[in-house]
Design a protein that fits this description.
163 residues; alpha/beta; Rossmann fold; 7 strands; globular; binds guanosine-5'-diphosphate; binds magnesium ion; GTPase Der
């Protein structure tokens, strides 16, 4: 089966926005290449010569997860079970919040490649603010903005290089 690129992060950092942005569509549409399973949304991607599936684990409203740490646990479990690469999404406008540290803590012992995606880095002068997220973990950090369409090719190159 295809490599799985699993998107994790606390609510509101822009996981679904990232999914739709990478998929190149405004809304993830359910068709032959996009699918909703019970707990995740997937989309088949091609970049350069690589094919992979991106997976948005963030509550799609089918499971009624009211406890935020339960939702994070569920995301991490999907990542542990099925990810070949994990996109750990954070929010440069908010900076590091306790729930980000919780996600980082749960990922610490997950032995899979992780890319930190600093979303909402809407302007280039904010790039240095994204550097704070290095303290959340190991691996690459890519500042992006789904809103301003910043650094999509950079992120896709980083993903493709690590699959
Ligand atoms: P999720 O809960 O992690 O799936 O987050 P969503 O994708 O639902 O996005 C949460 C909010 O962040 C929405 O209001 C988005 O419009 C906003 N958002 C997403 N990406 C960006 C971005 O690059 N810049 C800014 N300023 N806002 C964004
Ligand atoms: Mg979402």
């Amino acid at each position: 089966s295809l490599p799985q690129v699993v998107i994790v992060g606390r609510p509101n950092v822009g996981k679904s926005s990232l999914f739709n942005w990478l998929a190149g569509r405004r809304l993830a549409i359910v068709d032959n290449v996009a699918g909703v399973t019970r707990d995740r949304m997937t989309y088949l991607m091609q970049w350069r010569d690589r094919y992979f599936e991106i997976v948005d684990t963030g509550g799609i409203g089918i499971n009624d997860v009211d406890d935020l740490t339960d939702e994070i646990d569920q995301q991490i479990n999907i990542a542990i079970d099925s990810a070949d690469l994990i996109l750990f999404v954070v929010d440069t406008r908010d900076g590091i919040l306790p729930l980000d540290q919780e996600v980082a803590r749960r990922l610490r012992h997950v032995n899979k490649p992780i890319v930190l995606v600093a979303n909402k880095t809407d302007e280039s002068h904010m790039d240095h603010e994204a550097d704070q997220f290095y303290q959340l973990g190991r691996g690459m950090l890519v500042p992006v903005s789904t809103l301003q369409n910043r650094n999509k090719d950079d992120l896709l190159n980083v993903i493709a290089d690590r699959l």
